[in-house]
Amino acid sequence: MRALLYTGPNQMELTDLPAPIPAAGEVLVAVHAVGICGSDMHAYHGHDDRRPAPLVLGHEAAGIVAEGPRKGQAVAINPLVVD
């Protein structure tokens, strides 16, 4: 999958990463859009020790379910929902 990878303070690299394999009960989403918020900017500038490089930033995504239940359905991902 293509990803914009945070590689260090003020540094990003467009790269190819292996596609994740969903576990039982999970889905794989083909992301069509992702929001970059203030916390992502703190990480990008090197001010967030919780997000060390390398890392794909952006946790507010929308796309289409590519694998798993409801394949083909448009979804918005809420990162605050946990099991």
Keywords for this entry:
single chain; 83 residues; mainly beta; Quinone Oxidoreductase, Chain A, domain 1; 3-stranded antiparallel β-sheet; 6 strands; 41% strand; globular
Structure description:
This protein is mostly beta strands and 83 residues long. The protein has one domain (2-76): Quinone Oxidoreductase, Chain A, domain 1 (Alpha-Beta Complex). The chain is 8% helix and 41% strand. The chain has one helix at residues 38-44; strands at residues 2-8, 11-16, 28-35, 55-56, 60-67, 74-76. The strands form two sheets. Strands 2-1-4 form a three-stranded antiparallel sheet, with no helix packed on it. Strands 3-5-6 form a three-stranded antiparallel sheet, with no helix packed on it. The protein is globular and about 40 Å long. The relative contact order is 0.25.
